[in-house]
Amino acid sequence: xxxxxxxxxxxxxxxNDLPKPLVPVLDRPVIGHVIDYLAAHAVSDLVxxxxxxxxxVERYVGDGRDFGVRMSYLREPTLMGSAGxxxxxxxxFDSTFVVIGCDDVTDVxxxxxxAFHRERRAEATIVLVExxxxxxxxxxxxxxxxxxxxxxxxxxxxxxxxxxxxxxIYVFEPELLARIPAATFYDFGKQVFPExxxxxxxxxxxxxxxxxxxxxxxxxxxxxxxxxxxGKVRLSIGDGAEIxxxxxxxxxxxxxxxxxxEGFASVGAGSSVGPGAVVDCSIVWRGxxxxxxxxxxxxxxxDDVVVEPRAFVEGGLxxxxxxxx
Length: 325
Hints:
The chain folds into 2 domains: 2-219, Spore Coat Polysaccharide Biosynthesis Protein SpsA, Chain A (Alpha-Beta Complex); 237-324, Hexapeptide repeat proteins (UDP N-Acetylglucosamine Acyltransferase, domain 1, 3 Solenoid). Helix content is 18%, strand content 29%. The protein is built from 6 helices and 26 strands. The chain has a 7-stranded mixed β-sheet, sandwiched between helices. A 6-stranded mixed β-sheet has the order 12-13-16-19-22-25.
């Protein structure tokens, strides 16, 4: 199951009129990367919960055949939490199953995670990666065999009891679903996992040396682009796009010969970069017009933004069709 119902408020105004699953990474909706990842690990039957601009997500993914999978949908008029969403489609899960967020960019070895889970006869397994700075993550404390003993949510630097963070990639047995009440807002992190600890259930964390990034914040969204362009994780790019010297140029995008696009930048399909303009360490979505001698630095522009000539834009997120002077 792909969890995709959230509003992605941390990426506003980019997501004012765009659901998080369709936020582009390398000029391609992030949910496309997640489906590719699952398909590469032979996961062929998927369900995704949708809520915010649900029709747009369904239009992009369709029945899944273009991705080599079979896709079904849970439309949630009212969001019921991560666990509450899975509970609503419990009839689909009669064997070991995987839950992943629509904003996870990763190369985690899912096959290894499934093997780890089965070897330990686990009810639930969380995939973990190590991070130097864990202050913005959910930290997981484990024993030597991987059994989970505690959690810390965004611990202050120096107070962390582990460097292992929760990726939001879970392997579950169907029996776990009995722990989730029906028709109730219920969350894995706040309710299901503490219950598993309290019941001394077979609950494990599997550490992997793998790439993982949750693009749900501006800083992590930028990091995912830079890492993909630097080759730290391999992702498919948008149709007709190409990568030139660690920068992405989308299909039909035009860059004047006197302009510069540099610093792990991305220019989406149909955008234009005018004479003498500079796009430095910035992410430009589709149909953007960047005027002559304009300068972008560490900024993100949504579709159809117009940057006036000689404008200087540093940082920030800019909503679709806005005009920058």
